[in-house]
Each structure stands twice: as structure tokens, then as C-alpha cells.
Amino acid sequence: MAETDVFHALANPVRRRLLESLRQGPRAAGELAADFELSRPAVSEHLAVLRNARLVREEPRGRHRYYHLEPAPLAEVSDWLHPFERYWRARLRDLGALLNEEHPAP
């Protein structure tokens, strides 16, 4: 199977929630599935997309599969977002200056 684009993987809210769930540490697939009103096979499909995007890795432990967050591919997203962050930071600074002009601090 071809590698999944990180942006495509992150486009789905279920996959974003799965990644958020893994921030605290590895979790079993069944444990992750219990957090959703989806069937286990549906959650497994989302985990497969995240695995193909290299955002998670799977570790077999007996009959269970544990998933670990692999944050390195998120650097690509961070690099893409960085110019937008600077844009909004400048806009918020301008808004703050305008508000201070209209309502100066006593």
C-alpha cells in the first residue's frame, strides 16, 4: 500500500482524535475503539491510514495490538503552518494596538 499523505490523514476528525488519545502513551486498539461510536473495523481502518502516514506505529503484544504516536511526520504540518502563524500573530498585534488606542489603560 502506498504511503498516505500526512495532510490527508489529519483531514479526518476521527483520526485527529485517535492521535490525541495517543499523546499520553501507547494504547491497545480495542481501548482506542471504545472511545468512539464506531465499529472496531472502522477504527482499524482509521488506524491503518495513520500507520500508512507514519503517524502511528503498531506493536503486537500477544493477541493485542498497541499503537504508539510517531510525531515526526507532524513536522511537515508545522513547517506548512508556520507562515500562517506569523500572519495571524501580526494581525493580532495590530488588533491589540488598535484596541489600546481606543481604550488606553488607566
Automatic annotation (TrEMBL):
Keyword Transcription regulation (UniProt): yes
Domain HTH arsR-type: 1-89
Gene3D superfamilies: Winged helix-like DNA-binding domain superfamily/Winged helix DNA-binding domain (1.10.10.10)
One Pfam family it belongs to: HTH_5
PROSITE patterns: HTH_ARSR_2 (PS50987)
Cited SUPFAM superfamilies: Winged helix' DNA-binding domain (SSF46785)
Keywords: DNA-binding, Transcription, Transcription regulation
Keyword rRNA-binding applies: no
Regions annotated as coiled coil: none
Matching NCBIfam families: HTH_metalloreg
Official protein name in the record: ArsR/SmtB family transcription factor
Highest classification ranks of the organism: Bacteria, Bacillati, Actinomycetota, Actinomycetes, Kitasatosporales
